[in-house]
Specification:
6-stranded parallel β-sheet, 7-stranded parallel β-sheet, alpha/beta, about 30% helix
């Protein structure tokens, strides 16, 4: 029955004339990720396009996606740009559906993961960063390889430009190093699914015997400033986290993340694919993975293995290793530079700030 309803909606949208210069954008959260960076590029360089945001939040600027106006704009747009494949099942053939996704798949997703049982194969134009990620995207979504364009990701353009974003934060003048901690998804919004260890207000690294107050003292005494961006499903813990002037917890949509990353000296993550993008900066990366075995088992492995090779940086599993890693960072000891360069060249065909232009030229302009 659901399939029949989708087919009817798709037919109705097909019959509605399309405005070749109208582009609708979707992302999660609203105004974020690849969609937002491409939107800003088009507004700046191709102003004759009518660019409209379809939002989940009724109070946001843009157009509420479930309103009559939102449905009208979706149905009359020639181009649909998304980060999470929204409404792909009802997009007709006379509409140019562009799936930018929200990162290259390190974790198994779609047909490579557990979702394949309820997935439906729907073709669209997609992007990748290299021959390797092209095959991963194609396999994940049961897509024809010639529908996956090697363009690079729009958000990565922002990694190449220094900006004045740090002026928006109270970063002490004495700071010598700036790092960013970006852990991946662990729990869904209903806390029904936990992958690995949960983050808490007293233990953001999930490391046994970690002491948050001691950590704050370390940052201050070593003049290291740390930005922390938790997954949206874990943002609720920020409310009760103790801070000082050397740490800042980024809330959703507070800042364009990759513009901020361009100002950092170092990335700390775990199993998040953000490190694949950060490779383009040539800066050190470390991986805090105290729950490695538990997490990998919950995800049934990764798309590329062994993880030890594809994650080129120090692997931190306990408290002493955490501070050893930070000491190396502070003292400019880079143990993984050669491996990092090797992995970067495999993951990225293009290593420049022109991904938006390639996406526009290949998927919209043509």
């Amino acid at each position: 029955m659901k399939k029949i309803i989708f087919s009817i909606i798709q037919l109705l949208i097909y019959l509605i004339p399309k405005n070749k210069n109208k582009i609708v954008f979707r992302s999660f959260p609203d105004f974020s990720g690849n969609s937002n960076v491409l939107y800003e590029y088009i507004i700046k360089n191709h102003s004759h396009y009518n660019c409209i945001w379809l939002t989940d939040n009724e109070n946001n600027k843009g157009c509420y996606v479930k309103s009559i106006k939102g449905i009208y704009h979706y149905a009359t747009a020639k181009h649909v740009v998304t980060t999470h494949n929204d409404y792909i099942s009802i997009s007709p053939k006379n509409q140019n559906y562009i799936s930018l996704w929200h990162g290259m798949p390190l974790k198994k997703i779609g047909y490579l993961g557990d979702e394949y049982e309820w997935m439906k194969s729907v073709s669209s134009n997609r992007i990748a960063t290299s021959d390797l990620t092209r095959s991963l995207i194609a396999s994940s979504f049961d897509e024809k390889a010639n529908n996956v364009y090697i363009t690079g990701q729009p958000v990565c353009d922002n990694l190449f430009s220094k900006n004045k974003l740090l002026e928006n934060f109270n970063v002490p003048e004495s700071v010598k190093k700036i790092a960013c901690y970006l852990p991946t998804f662990r729990e869904d919004f209903n806390e029904e699914k936990i992958e690995g260890k949960k983050v808490t207000a007293s233990n953001i690294f999930r490391i046994e015997n970690f002491n948050h107050k001691d950590f704050l003292k370390y940052l201050k005494s070593n003049e290291i400033f740390l930005f922390v961006k938790l997954h949206p499903a874990e943002q609720h813990v920020i409310e009760s986290i103790e801070t000082n002037e050397y740490i800042h917890f980024i809330s959703s949509n507070e800042v364009e993340l990759y513009s901020l990353l361009s100002n950092t000296d170092f990335l700390i993550t775990d199993y998040s694919s953000v490190y694949i993008d950060y490779l383009l900066t040539n800066n050190p990366i470390s991986f805090v993975i105290p729950d490695e075995e538990q997490y990998i088992k919950s995800r049934n492995g990764f798309t590329v293995e062994p993880y030890e090779f594809w994650a080129p940086g120090e692997k931190v599993k306990n408290n002493s290793e955490l501070y050893e890693m930070l000491d190396n960072f502070k003292n400019d000891i880079d143990l993984y530079k050669e491996q990092r360069m090797l992995v970067k060249d495999i993951f990225h065909k293009y290593q420049d700030a022109n991904s938006c232009k390639r996406v526009f030229d290949n998927l919209i302009k043509k």
